[in-house]
Design a protein that fits this description.
- This protein is of the alpha/beta class.
- Helix 8 runs parallel beside helix 10.
- The protein is globular, with a radius of gyration of 23 Å.
- 31% of the residues lie in helices and 24% in strands.
């Protein structure tokens, strides 16, 4: 049942002793980071002041803005020559967030992902196909190295090209697939068009889903369509990527690996802890990372710690599925997007007015974004409008890594709101 029984079967007291030991080591490592050294000095705090897990609250929160403000290497706790990889994601201001890794960090990341995959029944001999994007995003390489660490044959199919994905599934005998939920639905639709029955014509048995919100009803629908068991995963680039928390075979919450992270749930307004079992913002502290440890990182994800024990025998805390976010981030096709990113691009065009509306829809199980924006002046020059639309689309894709539909509309045609403008209209429907 366990890939790492010495860690997965720890009792609660054993987990907490290990966490304190690793936290104190992490704090000493953080003092090598210019950012944390300055922050601790400013409030007169030293690592020796943290004598228990309860003392963690003495440490200020770390935010995504801190990462942007100290771009690119201000949070590094090791010399740059010890760093072997970085990942980055785009931000609201155009400044990306950068996460650094030593070889130790990559090895531990692979171990964590391998542990997750083993927990849902995958073994050497399985064929694992990854439909996540590779590159600066963490989903591709994170699952790749974890699957390889487990000894599976891996198919780095990357994102898109659905017919090619299906050909790989059928030709290579893929038994396990990683895909975002909306794309899993799209795969089934194309299989139907091609006359392929996934239960009869493929060896698929396990699906790993995550990276975008989805209901349990949607998960069950996907399982029925593809004839698989679908397991929820949670990860984020600031915490390495995939492998932070994962469901076990019981499918009753995501076990978060507490030998890697200390978990807090706080009220997003007051930042005070909420009682266990209540929904709040997830705050994570890394305790097994060299290059760029993060203390009390505000994830902005809303969830809760599930009460009770899991029948699987693991005592690591379980998180409920993510309820949403405490900020206005859009998750589309597994990509994190902020409306301000779109606004920053639109406002660069003098031909455009101040009013715009972002509409999110789910068309044929595929999430789509439409950006309607008002023109400053009326024109019926079709060629001009076509060129302008094309250029706006190109710049938006460069910024948010998703190709939206851009519609130029006449001035005054978008609905006006009393008070705060409504910039995002989410019409996506959950599969039922």
């Amino acid at each position: 049942m366990y890939l790492h029984p010495e860690m997965e079967t720890l009792t609660r007291p054993e987990i907490e002793r290990l966490q304190l030991e690793r936290l104190q080591k992490t704090l000493r490592q953080c003092m090598r980071s210019p950012f944390y050294k300055r922050r601790f000095d400013e409030i007169g705090l030293t690592p020796d002041d943290i004598r228990s897990l309860d003392d963690l609250t003495k440490i200020p929160f770390t935010t995504k803005q801190d990462l942007r403000d100290n771009y690119p290497f201000g949070l590094s706790a090791v010399p740059l020559e010890q760093v072997v990889r970085l990942h980055s994601s785009s931000g609201t201001t155009g400044t990306p967030t950068v996460i650094l890794h030593t070889q130790h960090d990559l090895d531990e990341w692979a171990n964590a992902v391998a542990r997750c995959l083993y927990m849902v029944g995958l073994r050497k001999g399985d064929i694992f196909q990854n439909s996540s994007g590779y590159g600066m995003f963490t989903g591709g390489l994170g699952f790749q190295y974890g699957a390889e660490r487990l000894g599976m044959l891996t198919v780095p199919a990357a994102a898109g090209n659905t017919k090619r994905q299906i050909k790989f599934i059928t030709d290579f005998g893929t038994t396990a697939l990683h895909a975002i939920p909306s794309y899993a639905g799209r795969l089934y639709e194309v299989m139907e068009e091609m006359g392929i029955d996934p239960r009869r014509d493929t060896r698929l048995k396990t699906l790993i889903i995550g990276a975008e919100p989805h209901s349990d009803e949607q998960r069950r629908r996907i399982e029925n369509m593809l004839g698989v068991k679908a397991y929820n995963s949670f990860g984020m680039s600031e915490m390495c990527g995939p492998g932070v928390a994962f469901e076990c075979l019981e499918q009753n919450g995501l076990h978060i690996w507490e030998d890697y992270y200390i978990v807090e749930i706080v009220d997003p307004q007051t930042l005070e802890p909420v009682p266990e079992g209540e929904v709040g913002e997830l705050v994570l502290t890394t305790i097994n990372r060299e290059a760029m440890p993060l203390l009390r990182y505000r994830t902005r994800d809303l969830t809760r710690i599930l009460p009770g024990e899991c029948p699987c025998g693991r005592h690591h805390k379980r998180l409920d599925r993510m309820k949403g976010r405490s900020d206005d981030m859009i998750i589309l096709k597994g990509v994190n997007i902020f409306p301000i990113q779109i606004e920053n691009i639109l406002m660069q065009f003098k031909e455009l007015g101040n009013e715009y509306l972002i509409t999110l829809t789910n068309l044929e199980a595929n999430d789509e974004m439409t950006v309607e924006v008002e023109l400053n002046d009326f024109t019926d020059d079709y060629g001009f409008l076509q060129r302008l639309t094309k250029e706006i689309t190109r710049q938006l894709k460069d910024e948010i890594l998703i190709t939206p539909r851009v519609k130029l509309v006449s001035k005054g045609s978008l609905p006006k709101q009393e008070g705060k403008a409504v910039r995002v209209k989410d019409l996506r429907k959950t599969l039922i």
